[in-house]
Amino acid sequence: MSDPMRIRAAENNGVVDVKILMKHDMESGQRKDAAGKIIPAWFITTVNVKAQGKDVFTADLGSAVSKDPFLNFKYKGAKGDKIVVSWVDTRGDKRTDETTAA
Fewest beta carbons less than 10 Å away: which of 13, 33, 49, 100? Predict the structure, then answer.
């Protein structure tokens, strides 16, 4: 399993600002290793964020996204909202982490 995501969420005047750093190598499938063989594609395909059990952000990513992607978005919410971030990659690996809006 991959390293935990770093998730920060701060509420200001009814808007929650969410920042997510996901640890993932995000291989595009276009690079070659030292022996000249193509490194297989391996990247996050889907990201879903729920706040208080409701979807607030969904993204479909592709091979062009850099290693250790960073996402930042805002939604109407409140201090204390439970935020759950999940992703799935091309190998079927999954990661879910959560935080509470401050």
Answer: 13
